[in-house]
Specification:
Layout (H helix, E strand, L loop, with lengths): L1 E18 L5 E19 L4 E6 L13 H7 L7 E6 L10 H17 L6 H7 L3 H6 L3 E5 L3 E4 L7 E6 L6 H6 L18 H9 L6 H7 L2 H10 L4 E6 L6 E5 L2 H14 L4 E8 L1
Parallel strand pairs: 3-4
Antiparallel strand pairs: 1-2, 2-4, 2-5, 2-10, 5-6, 7-9, 7-10, 8-9
Helix pairs in contact: 1-2
The chain binds 4-diphosphocytidyl-2-C-methyl-D-erythritol 2-phosphate and adenosine-5'-diphosphate.
Adenosine-5'-diphosphate binds next to helix 1 and helix 2.
Keywords: ATP-binding, Isoprene biosynthesis, Kinase, Nucleotide-binding, Transferase
Catalytic activity: 4-CDP-2-C-methyl-D-erythritol + ATP = 4-CDP-2-C-methyl-D-erythritol 2-phosphate + ADP + H(+)
Family: Belongs to the GHMP kinase family. IspE subfamily.
Length: about 280
Amino acid sequence: MTAEFAPAKVNLTLHVTGRRADGYHLLDSLVVFAAVGDVLRVTPAERLTLRISGPQARALAAEDDNLVLRAARAFGLNRGAAIELEKHLPVASGIGGGSADAAAGLRALARLWGVALPDAATVLRLGADVPVCLAGRPVRMAGVGETLTPLPALPEAWLVLANPGLGVSTPEVFRALARRDNRAMPEVPGFADVRDFAGFLRGLRNDMEPAAESLLPVIGTVRAALAAQKGCLLARMSGSGATCFGLFGAEAQAQEAARAVQAAQPGWWVQAGRMLS
Ligand SMILES: C[C@@](CO)(OP(=O)(O)O)[C@H](O)COP(=O)(O)OP(=O)(O)OC[C@H]1O[C@@H](n2ccc(N)nc2=O)[C@H](O)[C@@H]1O
Ligand SMILES: Nc1ncnc2c1ncn2[C@@H]1O[C@H](COP(=O)(O)OP(=O)(O)O)[C@@H](O)[C@H]1O
């Protein structure tokens, strides 16, 4: 058996800078990962099968188009494996759960089968967020998701993720954008500490946030709930939403913030975790 962690992807910034002829958007995004995520286990087997368990399993069917099975087929090898996906991340929530599972599947199966990963174009075809999830560490993401530049070391930080239990469709949010020619990010410098980092991020944006919020106004409530917590240095939406993150410099403050938001909103999904370096 081999296991892989599939961490939540968090877009600390997300600038939409243009659109390609095929309709895909050009992005400029500072992407990090949180120590909150799904777990994938694979064991040798004759046939390729998928079983889904865990607290978010109900939201997802183990159908052929599940990103884990699509990732397995992307090797083009027609080999078997019994895959178990322990689903913790809410589905269609802007933290790339499906893409993280696909990336974890690629890593786990390459190891199980003793083969190389599929080429970059094949990986990108699984989803625009799959290359960044395969990288699995802080990067600046550009193009439609295929151009990844490593970042200088980031300061220690904690993230609180909160989702209101309602999904927004990524293509719908892209369609609702007021403009698609926003400014790119400046060069990402080194940071003295987490406050310095948060100050830099505060000057940047998630350009999808106003569009997502117009489709799902509760996103504003989620962001405000995080922003109101002691020690929260920045609250913003991730990806196309609806999950928002709060950035904290101290673990105890992040844990207390997650507890307080969950207590006030028992129906929301709320988790705290270290920002992975
Ligand atoms: C917006 C982002 C930002 O990281 O995150 P999420 O909200 O999904 O977490 C991603 O670009 C989403 O990546 P992913 O969810 O893998 O997208 P895909 O399955 O490839 O595409 C779903 C749909 O989104 C639109 N799309 C996606 C990526 C992109 N750069 N431009 C687009 O216009 C397209 O309409 C596409 O049909
Ligand atoms: N293993 C998977 N986990 C989550 N979603 C999946 C998976 N496989 C396929 N999907 C589909 O992919 C879509 C995007 O899901 P997800 O990656 O969680 O969204 P987001 O990138 O917005 O967080 C969903 O509509 C879902 O039905």
